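Thread amino acids onto this structure.
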């Protein structure tokens, strides 16, 4: 697609969930321990989704034992509507650890592969597997909430991993991240209908899902209807 992403103007009431980007038009690590599940984040995500009108339920213990399930079932009007998985990105402490082991006057750090993109790719891959275990026919929607505690990571990194491009949100479409976009998540990224990116750096700051990304063009309108998002403000990024 040739459309560039543009931030949509939104009212204060809709500020929790803005803007909207659709990556369905895009080209189809070693620090994996830096993403995972944080109980506090799951609780806050559950509360947030409840504030958006969902009835949030976990899974029976037996189901969790039999298969690696996603974190939540989301119901509307008593009926199952979606599944949701939560992944947390903790701070990358690599440089801090290097500094702690360095004596006075010694140099710390050095060159290494940027772990951010691997972390995001790993999170998408693992979440897709978990969501598939509960929703194999993709009858219901799949949501992935990425809670970011690492100031070195940003929402543009997710965009790069999903599209394979440098920064399409700002008109830079160089194919710099195709190894992630076209790698193992090539098809899996489209199994996730909605990506929510949350920056959470302070312990008691308000919890807001500020960025919404659509991974599946076939369900985009359905997601918009469920979350009361105006589909006309969804911008295609390709």
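Threaded sequence (238 positions):
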């Amino acid at each position: 697609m040739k459309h560039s992403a543009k931030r949509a103007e939104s009212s204060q009431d809709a500020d929790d969930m803005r803007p909207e980007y659709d990556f369905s038009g895009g080209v189809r690590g070693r620090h994996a321990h830096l993403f995972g599940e944080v109980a506090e984040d799951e609780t806050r995500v559950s509360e947030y989704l409840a504030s958006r009108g969902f009835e949030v339920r976990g899974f029976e213990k037996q189901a969790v034992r039999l298969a690696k399930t996603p974190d939540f079932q989301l119901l509307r009007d008593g009926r199952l509507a979606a599944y949701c998985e939560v992944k947390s990105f903790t701070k990358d402490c690599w440089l801090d650890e290097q500094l702690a082991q360095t004596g006075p006057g010694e140099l710390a750090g050095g060159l290494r592969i940027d772990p951010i993109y691997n972390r995001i790719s790993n999170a998408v891959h693992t979440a897709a597997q978990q969501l598939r275990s509960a929703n194999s026919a993709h009858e219901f929607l799949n949501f992935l909430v990425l809670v970011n505690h690492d100031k070195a990571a940003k929402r543009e990194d997710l965009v790069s991993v999903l599209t394979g491009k440098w920064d399409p949100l700002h008109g830079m479409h160089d194919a710099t991240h195709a190894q992630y976009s076209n790698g193992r998540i090539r098809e899996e990224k489209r199994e996730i209908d909605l990506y929510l990116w949350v920056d959470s750096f302070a312990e008691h700051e308000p919890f807001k899902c500020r960025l919404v990304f659509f991974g599946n063009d076939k369900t985009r309108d359905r997601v918009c209807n469920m979350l009361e998002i105006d589909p006309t403000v969804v911008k295609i990024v390709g």
